[in-house]
Give the backbone structure.
Amino acid sequence: MAALNGTIMSTVFDINSLARENVRKLVPYMSARRLGGRGDVWLNANEYPIAPDFQLTENTLNRYPECQPATVIQRYADYAGLQPEQVLVSRGADESIELLIRVFCEPGRDAVLFCPPTYGMYSVSAETFGVEQKKIPASTDWQPDIAAIKNNLDRVKLIYICSPNNPTGNLIDPAALRQILELARNRAIVAIDEAYIEFCPQHTTTHATTRWLQDYPHLVILRTLSKSFALAGLRCGFTLASADIIALMLKVIAPYPLATPVADIAAQALTEAGIATMRNRVAEITNNRAYLQQALSKLALVENVFPSETNYILVKFINAELVFKTLWEQGIILRDQRKQPGLTNCLRITVGNRNECEQLVRAISALSDQPQQIKETENP
């Protein structure tokens, strides 16, 4: 405010003009919580339906925490069959996605590559840092298009592959992953996002990608405690890689990425008892997933229930908008995927407890029993 001849004058300044152009234009990732909704059946964020019971044992909140809590690192290394120097812990796997861009990609020069439909944070993180994105659409079976990837590696420094893929739920063929790793050798980092890997136990035992780290120094594996460990609210993720890559990431990570209570609970979750509890949850969710897939496949509004190796299923409806809005109004919150490439009329549904699954089926069944509603009223 300024005074001129006794008159108060105001100058209006648009603070947005100071922001980077790409940030001004950025469409943020719309997480389940950001999208909101009101209800009591939350099937939109791939969370476990029941809160785990942990008690804090660490009371030194007057002190800053360790940058990389030794107990957490050691226990996850033991769980993954790796050495501690191959493990980095962060604020969810989302932080690792950004750290990799900060370490390996020069804005305006380098590019990241990924294969939509897939997790939206790869795109948002690249855009935030001003790094070019090469989006190579997945094939019709949602496997990577190897030939297209091979033809688009110019300037690519970082490749993200989500396996099992979010939101389609399919595991990426290990042979395809190895092909990508060979194509990227000596030229790019390949980050395999395994947020949901515990839901396909056969892969974590007989086909574990962690065993590949000795053969592929440019391989990075992203993990999290948010899904099978039922700790989405903890925000704790892990990067598994060569000691050299971990050392580079430690140069750019925040000084204190993990709060003391987070490290405390993460360490408890990674005990032998905590891992056994996680595996019991996986078995429960797997059974509920099979029930949900079978029940939904019988309904008139359902066009296709896709196979899944995760704690969610992707479903194609005859009229997805009707299903999404009607259930939203009933307090059953799903995740709309219709804007993703190749996912017309598709909704992603988290596998909840059996009661939630049955409530969902009843609600969609009631809609299916109304023939006048089944016809799609408009193009989503």
